[in-house]
């Protein structure tokens, strides 16, 4: 079975989504003790636009990822494609507009697509006792992850995300904005890693 796959989506795939990709990978690595967290959770990203395709992470974003014990090595921006969505068990978008973009491409992905802040709010109140058992093994993490996503979709009950669920675009702005956006990303990625691997 393939590892549980999380696809992070923003606009250009050089700031918000790569930060989320690498900060989730770091959180999973710290929870599991695995040198290669990709064995348990595959964290990837893409942008709705292809302007930066093939570029490295934006330098302030890369600095923040490294400062938070993540790795920016080997990252190259890419444009979102339908097969990326098809291969993901969970899609986390930076904004509601990007949620709409994903669902327009793949309507069947609506129940596994969330704005990042929205997903964080939902899992914060999720009853972990109803989930499959947690073990640091690929099949167990996959089953638990799929159950978390399905539960969050039921909890959402068709309600639209809040405006406050969106992540500001920090591109071209100061380090303070990048810090705040990274904090907001970790407000979701760290609790999610803890829920997956308690």
SSE layout and pairing:
Layout: E1 4-10, H1 16-32, E2 41-47, H2 59-67, H3 82-86, E3 90-93, H4 96-105, E4 113-115, H5 116-124, H6 138-156, H7 175-196
Parallel strand pairs: 1-2, 1-3, 3-4
Helix pairs in contact: 1-2, 1-7, 2-7, 5-7
What does this entry look like structurally?
The protein is α/β, with parallel strands linked by helices. It has one domain (4-196): Response regulator (Rossmann fold). 46% of the residues lie in helices and 11% in strands. It has seven helices and four strands; from the N terminus they run βαβααβαβααα. It has helices at 16-32, 59-67, 82-86, 96-105, 116-124, 138-156, 175-196; strands spanning 4-10, 41-47, 90-93, 113-115. Strands 2-1-3-4 form a four-stranded parallel sheet, with helices on both faces. Helix 1 (16-32) packs parallel to helix 2 (59-67) and helix 2 packs across helix 7 (175-196). The longest helix is centred in the C-terminal third of the chain and has 22 residues, at 175-196. It is globular. The mean pLDDT is 95.
